[in-house]
From TrEMBL:
<dbReference type="GO" id="GO:0016020">
    <property type="term" value="C:membrane"/>
</dbReference>
<dbReference type="Pfam" id="PF00561">
    <property type="entry name" value="Abhydrolase_1"/>
</dbReference>
<dbReference type="GO" id="GO:0006508">
    <property type="term" value="P:proteolysis"/>
</dbReference>
<dbReference type="GO" id="GO:0008233">
    <property type="term" value="F:peptidase activity"/>
</dbReference>
<dbReference type="InterPro" id="IPR050266">
    <property type="entry name" value="AB_hydrolase_sf"/>
</dbReference>
<keyword id="KW-0732">Signal</keyword>
<comment type="similarity">
    <text>Belongs to the peptidase S33 family.</text>
</comment>
<feature type="signal peptide">
    <location>
        <begin position="1"/>
        <end position="18"/>
    </location>
</feature>
<dbReference type="InterPro" id="IPR005945">
    <property type="entry name" value="Pro_imino_pep"/>
</dbReference>
<dbReference type="InterPro" id="IPR029058">
    <property type="entry name" value="AB_hydrolase_fold"/>
</dbReference>
<dbReference type="InterPro" id="IPR000073">
    <property type="entry name" value="AB_hydrolase_1"/>
</dbReference>
<keyword id="KW-0378">Hydrolase</keyword>
<dbReference type="InterPro" id="IPR002410">
    <property type="entry name" value="Peptidase_S33"/>
</dbReference>
<feature type="domain" description="AB hydrolase-1">
    <location>
        <begin position="80"/>
        <end position="334"/>
    </location>
</feature>
<protein>
    <submittedName>
        <fullName>Alpha/beta fold hydrolase</fullName>
    </submittedName>
</protein>
């Protein structure tokens, strides 16, 4: 059981978010508070019976499968589809969005990607690749009837990679894009881990971690014993482990390790070995994304916050949200900053304000 819990924690590095704009903006007060009775009224909707939850049938090269989604709220012009991290994580890490988006009147959708938690979990490893996941998101979009007039796509960590790839192929369907706590280059991410994050650890701790990784001894309990106090609680979620929010712990217990290891690799200190994401790099392609785009980065993130700020400058209509107290899951450890900036961005785009 102890080893199982340790393995369930593997995946935090690329999971699941962030921040304040450089100008120190707070949530807009121009829009009045939504009418909560109409916001939560599902009368006459297809998902009324299930409270907004539904399975969506998707087609893949290996057959048809079902993926789980859940709608929260009603807003004809602001609808956010949430792409969780991992790969192989779950929607659960996003549950804190319940505390902020409803009162802002923003409709949003929880979604477990194929292979994750409430969705089907096929054993065919050929399914775990970026192009297939992009087509999955497009099929989900169509089923939910999201379009250019209302569709915001928010991807956190691995979900940020997926959101970037979706936008590069299907940006004509988007109203706005949010890339939360994810850089545009895995080689750059690995360099940051080696040159910035690693040296912040005590030298003897880093040496022991590297020795374990060289031996591929990732199930060794000592690996997590070293990473939890010296890495996770400093760069993944800046709270003592015993204070980590219940949805976060639940998400890790439901992590699909097969998907995670195939795409991200077994190391918690960068993406290494033969992981399929090892060479992913879209840094030169960002100017092709013309929709309003928000990047979010935390000062203590596993990802380089300067790189995420630079990304915003590459989009023709980009904005950066900086979380001074945030790490990789800034929507928990710099929560108010994160959501104030996120809500501002969504409402600014809805009003047609230029980035």
């Amino acid at each position: 059981m102890k080893n199982f819990k340790l393995l369930c924690l593997i995946g935090l590095l690329l999971l699941a978010q962030a921040c304040s704009s450089p100008s120190g903006q707070t949530a807009s007060t121009e829009n009045p508070a939504p009418d909560q009775s109409s916001f939560l009224d599902y009368s006459g909707l297809e998902s009324e019976l299930s409270g907004g939850a539904r399975m969506i049938r998707i087609s893949t090269p290996k057959g048809e499968f079902d993926v789980w989604t859940k709608r929260v709220g009603n807003n004809p012009t602001m609808k956010v589809l949430l792409l969780h991290g991992g790969p192989g994580g779950t929607h659960e890490a996003f549950e804190c969005f319940d505390s902020y988006l409803p009162k802002a009147g923003i409709e949003y959708y929880y979604y477990d990607q194929l292979g994750s938690h409430y969705s089907d979990q096929p054993n065919d490893t050929s399914l775990w690749n970026i192009p297939r996941f992009v087509e999955e998101v497009e099929q989900v979009r169509k089923a939910l009837k999201l379009d250019k007039s209302n569709f915001y796509l928010l991807g956190h960590s691995w979900g940020g990679i997926l959101a970037t790839e979706y936008a590069l192929k299907y940006q004509d369907n988007l109203k706005g894009l949010i890339i939360s706590n994810m850089v545009s280059s895995i080689p750059s991410y690995n360099k940051y881990a080696d040159e910035v994050l690693g040296p912040q650890m005590p030298a003897e701790v880093l040496t022991e971690i590297k020795a374990i990784e060289v031996k591929n001894d990732f199930t060794n309990p000592r690996y997590m014993e070293l990473l939890m106090p010296h890495f996770y609680t400093k760069h993944a979620l800046r709270m003592p482990l015993e204070q980590w929010p219940e949805p976060v712990m639940r998400m890790f217990n439901h992590m699909n390790q097969t998907v995670y290891v195939q795409m991200q690799g077994p190391s918690e200190f960068g993406i290494r070995g033969n992981a399929s994401l090892l060479h992913w790099d879209r840094s030169k392609d960002l100017p092709q994304i013309n929709v309003p785009t928000l990047t979010i980065g935390g000062e203590h993130d596993t990802m380089d916050p300067k790189h995420m700020e630079w990304m915003a400058s590459q989009f023709p209509h980009g904005r950066y949200l900086y979380c001074p107290n945030g790490s990789h899951m800034s929507f928990y450890d710099d929560q108010k900053t994160y959501f104030a900036g996120l809500v501002d961005f969504i409402k600014d785009v809805d009003r047609g304000e230029e980035m």
